[in-house]
Amino acid sequence: MSAHREETVRRLAAPDIASRKGGVPIVCLTAYTAPVAAALDDACDVLLVGDSVGMVVHGLPNTVGVTMDMMILHGQAVMRGSKKAMVVVDMPFGSYEASHEEAYANAVRIMKETGAQAVKVESGPTVPDTIAYLTQRGVPVMGHVGLRPQAVLLEGGFKAKGKDDAGRAKVLEEARLTAEAGAFAIVVEGVAESLAREVTESVSVPTIGIGASAGCDGQVLVVDDMLGLFDWTPKFVRRYADLKTQIERAAAQYASDVRDRSFPGPAETYYAKKP
């Protein structure tokens, strides 16, 4: 008998998310740190350690510069902070395109070093075969079709997809091949409502939309966008808080208290014990 005591809270895994097709919508947010992961855990089914961390946390202009080490570091933090939600870690640009073997080695490294339950890859001509290679070897994979942030330099910016018949057909085919390859769910980003619904209806696995309407089986947002930490957010974001303003006000009040010597006060000061 194992001496390891099983956790009282069971973390969600790929089969749990896959079973939600057409059911209660899947709730997903990005997370990059332990405290935020802990705060989101009760509300979310999936916490995505997105390569958006490069832009959101590290100030990069896009996700191309994100490394394996960065993804693993943030994946470890999110796993420490959460208990219930499934944690999915993005495979960064260049970590899965060269060969199936390299993709497998990098996916295994992410899962071993973080403890995450799955990895995510963006679509592309060679990616369905890679997904099949990974899933056949025990790696749960989430797909990603439509707007591909890792292809920003190739495509000249963050551009919505499926605007014409050829574009729609391409997104639909990518989604079909991604599902057939064994992905347990598919992120659908930056497509029109009608295309998002068509994709959702045409694949057997759940779709998770970002800028893809309520027609998907779930939704994901970048948590910093949702919390209002930036002055500008994309059209598809709904702000549920205005933390940037609150942080600025708190910092200004702190600065004022320091400068007029009202902080620290008696409540925040240590005193020697009387003899």
Describe the protein's topology:
Layout: H1 14-18, E1 26-30, H2 34-40, E2 46-49, H3 53-56, H4 68-81, E3 86-90, H5 100-114, E4 118-120, H6 127-135, E5 141-146, H7 152-155, H8 165-181, E6 185-189, H9 193-202, E7 207-210, E8 218-221, H10 223-226, H11 243-259
Parallel strand pairs: 1-2, 1-8, 2-3, 3-4, 4-5, 5-6, 6-7, 7-8
Describe the structure.
With 275 residues, the chain is α/β, with parallel strands linked by helices. Helix content is 39%, strand content 13%. It is built from eleven helices and eight strands. It has helices at 14-18, 34-40, 53-56, 68-81, 100-114, 127-135, 152-155, 165-181, 193-202, 223-226, 243-259, and strands at residues 26-30, 46-49, 86-90, 118-120, 141-146, 185-189, 207-210, 218-221. It has an eight-stranded parallel barrel, surrounded by five helices. Helix 5 (100-114) packs across helix 6. The model has no long low-confidence stretch (mean pLDDT 94).
Q: Can you tag this structure with a few keywords?
A:
globular; about 280 residues; about 40% helix; 8 strands
Short characterization:
With 275 residues, the protein is α/β, with parallel strands linked by helices. It is built from eleven helices and eight strands. Helix 5 links the parallel strand 3 (86-90) and strand 4.
What share of residues are in beta strands? 5-15%
Distance between the termini: 57 Å
Q: What's the alpha carbon Rg, rounded to whole Å? A: 21 Å
**Backbone shape:** globular
* Poorly predicted residue ranges: none
Give the strand order of the largest sheet, numbering strands 1, 2, ... along the chain: 1-2-3-4-5-6-7-8
Total count of strands: 8
Number of helices: 11
Mean pLDDT across every amino acid position: 94
Helicity, as a percent range: 25-40%
